[in-house]
Amino acid sequence: MDKKIGRPRSEGTKKAILTASYELSLENGFNAVTVEGIAERAGVSKATIYKWWPNKAAVVLDGFFAATESMLQVPDTGSVREDLFIQVNNLASFITSPKGKVITELIAEGQFDANIAEEYRNRYFNPRRLISRHIIERGILRGELKKDLDIELSIDLIFAPLFYRLLITGETVDSTFVKSLISYALMGLSTEA
User: Which domains does the chain have, with CATH numbers?
Assistant: First the structure.
């Protein structure tokens, strides 16, 4: 006779927790969010949250990701230039919006807390890098990009200027900047050079 240990995760409870964590992050900022506050808003116990997530950062990131995943879809247009523009422009537009402020707060917190940095890398940025990798690999297969590219370095080349402006200089990050960024990056990456 098979015995299941513990109760299965209720999708309704999970959704309530994720929604509560996302709403509280938007309303108050990451620093002000507490597991107690999430539990109260979701109508669950702290123990329920800790059973499924190791810490506040993990649940906030999952809440953020669940709420924003559809905002960061990347199409396959058949053009590496267009796909990269769409991906980077969508990210830039999102991250500069009030909803995207949660990510910049988590990046800042991650400078002082290695666990938070690991959580946002694993739950948010690594999946985004994987999308970028697929876009670049498709560009290589279609002959738009050089075959011998260092794909990880190419991704850094494309996204580093965006985060440099967002986190360091405070300069404008808009569609004009993104279009110029992609054009300059492709000068070194494309087969058209």
Answer: 11-55 (1.10.10.60), 72-187 (1.10.357.10)
- Per-residue model confidence as pLDDT tens digits over 57-92: 889 888 888 887 766 667 799 999 999 999 999 889
Helix (H) or strand (E) run with residue 157 in it = helix 151-164
- Written as six digits, the tokens of 86 are 């769409």
**Is 193 a residue whose pLDDT tops 50?**
yes
Contact 173, 166 (CB under 8 A): yes
Average pLDDT, the chain: 88
* Alpha helical stretches, state H, 71-121: 80-95, 101-110, 114-120
- The residue count of the chain comes to 193
Average pLDDT over residues 113-128: 84
CA angle 158, 109, 53 (to 5 degrees): 100
Q: Could you give the CA distance from residue 87 to residue 190 in angstroms, rounded to a whole number?
A: 18
72 neighbors 94 (Cβ within 8 angstroms) = yes
List the Cα angle 111/115/120 in 5-degree steps: 75
H helices then E strands: how many in the chain?
A: 10, 0
Confidence of residue 7 (pLDDT cuts 50, 70, 90): low
CA distance 191 to 145: 5
